[in-house]
Specification:
Helices cover 35% and strands 13% of the residues. The chain has 331 residues and is α/β, with parallel strands linked by helices. The chain has one domain: TIM Barrel (Alpha-Beta Barrel), CATH 3.20.20.220. An eight-stranded parallel beta barrel has the order 1-2-3-4-5-6-7-8, surrounded by seven helices. Helix 1 packs parallel to helix 10 and helix 2 runs parallel beside helix 3. The protein starts with 49 loop residues before the first strand and ends in a 17-residue tail after the last helix. The C terminus is likely disordered.
Length: 331
């Protein structure tokens, strides 16, 4: 990694991989010196809150992808496809093409973990041909030792260089940033560097509240960022879902809120109400144009039902036109 630190720095400053200290805590990362390849100000702001929904097929089959499409088409602005490492998955371009054929807009995550630079170029070309609305460029979490033992992560690139590569292929790029992960003082500057690399959108990772989000965006703008921002909203409706979210590096979720949901007589209804309230609070921040609904962990059917209920509360009208200008949900 060249342009660090990543979002997985632990509260004590340790690396997410092992016991070493994050090397970017003492020595600042180099500045992005290449020409800016994108400017989010070229995209009009959404006329209503953009709601991005985490989505993953139940199984790595085309039948599961088509089932996912049926459950999200017609109401969802866009689905955020992950780039997971806990099981084999269908290639991102294949999933994106299937979803796009069913009228579902896709923000496709691409990480630097399992592809060298040449394979990454091919993946980006595939996503462009498949009709990805946006490519979400992340360095990627390190794979736990018990997952696919014997396989070797690659990490030829990091998120900034991945963004630049995506922009060279004419793709709109989004990135993630973790305002609450150490070292918090340089996070706004790193967001500005991602903007200079060509990112148009930035998704603020789980754990940020309205006050800290407003401060972060203001500081990032002051540092030179022109990106538009979305904020992650935790969707807590079951124990399995919250465990999955808490396993993600850099995630901060108030334990009292978790207990409040899980002890409720109706955790699903309570979780939906909480997610709506959290989303409305974040959407009240100047500079936040939408939210990303993160979780829950159970089936595509249940996840879609919960996400649709939250979306209908936040925006009772139909899907909006995202920044690239193509209507979400349109063929």
């Amino acid at each position: 990694m060249v342009f660090g630190p990543c979002g997985g720095v632990r509260p004590d400053g340790g690396c997410e991989v092992d016991n070493r200290a994050c090397p970017f805590l003492d020595e600042p990362a180099p500045r992005w010196a290449a020409p800016r390849l994108g400017d989010s100000t070229a995209h009009p702001a959404p006329t209503a809150p953009l709601v991005l929904c985490d989505a993953r097929p139940d199984a790595p089959t085309l039948a599961s992808v088509r089932d996912l499409a049926r459950r999200y088409q017609g109401w969802c602005d866009a689905v955020l496809l992950g780039d997971h490492h806990d099981r084999a998955e269908l290639p991102g371009p294949m999933v994106t093409a299937e979803l796009a054929a069913e009228g579902v807009s896709v923000w496709a995550t691409i990480s630097c973990r399992d592809r060298n630079s040449a394979a990454t170029e091919s993946e980006l070309l595939g996503l462009a041909a498949a009709g990805a609305q946006v490519v979400h460029c992340v360095t990627g979490d390190a794979r736990a030792p018990h997952i696919l033992p014997g396989s070797t992560p690659v990490f030829d690139l990091d998120s900034l260089r991945l963004v630049s590569m995506a922009r060279r292929f004419g793709l709109t790029a989004s990135v993630a940033e973790s305002p609450m992960a150490p070292p918090t003082g340089i996070r706004p500057l790193r967001a500005a560097e991602k903007s200079r690399a060509g990112a148009s959108w930035c998704i603020l990772n789980l754990g940020v509240d309205a006050t800290s989000a407003a401060m972060f965006i203001d500081e990032a703008r002051h540092a030179g960022s022109t990106m538009r921002f979305l904020a992650c909203v935790p969707v807590i409706v079951d124990d399995a879902g919250i465990r999955r979210l808490l396993e993600l590096p850099g995630v901060r979720i108030d334990e009292s809120i978790v207990e409040e949901v899980l002890r409720s007589p109706d955790p699903v209804a309570k979780g939906i109400d909480l997610a709506v309230a959290t989303a409305r609070s974040l959407l009240g921040v100047h500079g936040i144009d939408g939210v990303n609904l993160s979780g829950p962990a159970h089936s595509v059917r249940d996840r879609a039902d919960v996400a649709r209920a939250i979306t209908s509360e936040l925006r009772p009208t139909g899907p909006i036109v995202p920044a690239s200008g193509r209507a979400a949900g349109a063929r």
